[in-house]
Amino acid sequence: MKADIIPSELLINGETLTLDHIRAVSRCAVAVRLHPDGLAKLHQSRKVIEQILEQEKVVYGVTTGFGSFSDIFISREDSDTLQKNIIMSHACGVGEPLPQEVVRAMMLLRANSLAKGYSGVRTEVVQLLLEMLNRGLHPLVPSRGSVGASGDLIPLSHIALAMIGLGEVSYKGRVIDSAEALQEAGLSPARLTAKEGLALINGTQYMCALGVLALVDALDLFKGATIAAAMTFEALTGIASAFDAKVSAVRPHSGQRTSAGLMLKLLQGGDLTGGWKHDRVQDAYTLRCIPQVHGATLEALNHIRGVLEVEINSATDNPLIFPESEEVISCGNFHGQPLALALDYLAIAVNELGNISERRIERLVNPALNNGLPAFLTENGGLNSGLMLLQYTAAALVSEGKVLAHPAGVDSIPTSGNQEDHVSMGSISAYKGRQVVDNITWVIAAELLAAARGMHFAAHRPGRGTAAAYRLLCEVLPRNNDDRILYRDLQAVYDLLKSGRIVREVEETVGKLL
After folding, report:
1. Which CATH architecture has domain 211-321+333-510?
2. Whole-angstrom distance between the N-terminal and C-terminal Cα of the chain?
3. Which of the residues 60, 118, 171, 470 is marked catalytic?
4. Model confidence over 115-132: pLDDT tens digits?
């Protein structure tokens, strides 16, 4: 992903949003405006709603109640009250507030979906959402409550609540009432009219925002995991012939081929790819099968990316307005099942990166498995425990990940008086998927730390890529392997990994990894 290419401003029209755009807006505060095409589509779809109101047609969500109240007609006089009521009644989330970057991604994604022109909202509603985003008014959105159909009603309601001046926002480092923040920012609360309250909350933007940010982090983490694996391979004097292109050619999974090529790329220029003589004929699976395991994760991430790239430019409202034919169709585009399955897959695939990494850490520290390295990677064992406990931490995180990898998308508890009788629980898939990515980032950081310590004792010349990573790690880790406060070293390596610095350092030496 080209995360280093950050636009100065983003124009949205519901059709061209990318994962990199979402990362840039959510984490780098890139400003967002409506593209002229988006403005035109908003005007066209709103005309249909105005015609429905004038003709007093019975249309779900426009002139009726919601969910199991869909048979109750709502007059034009009560339409504004209906829209306000749906926001207030649906804003019932619980749990710690979502991180600011997730809320920003949600706001962007909802505005982009509305800009497709199938929801019937007025332009000024979308403009207000974007102005709040651009001026740093971030609604407080509780992290729990969505069942993933009819979309992410509850978390999106907390964003809409702030838009109408009734919720709370984080603004300039303070948590204050949204009405106060809007006034301070020179904005006015939205006065929602027909269809607009429903349109703001009927969509998949909570699970999609969490999923996108987890995925972009997972793709970055894949590179870090590959570097960690290569460094462990160096420390344990692995047999590089397992990565020969001929091996992948006869089992041509694209991920395996890519992973094997990356391993050789990182090891190139070192003794292990230059005819090093080994005293064994093959390595344990955690070294020999890196391309098969890492490659499977990469293919999973690429599949998930495809699902999310479709979703971020989709109309997920209900009902949908089709201005060309002046049709209003009640449908199920808000249902999160495509995301639920994909994001369950994300948790499984990323945890497997941690699963094999933890086993490599065990090989590094275990004197029965580490090919002659000092026990627990300390030369003065007994007085020092070395990196013994590093494996404990990794084991705990991987075990937690195995629990989190249980699929949420196979569950469904009916809602709304059994009108919504099958829900996706994709919100839970997304939430736990993000947690797994963070857990495994710590595990890969632990492997980098242990592998760097192992490379201290290596008798052979490392590859160009592994040497670059090793040099950077030596800047934050001591050459002395006596015991010290270990969590600080682990935090330092985690920060290098999370910031992308270690990947950038390696890529400057060997070229792009993906």
Report:
1. Up-down Bundle (1.20)
2. 8
3. 60
4. 999 999 999 999 999 999
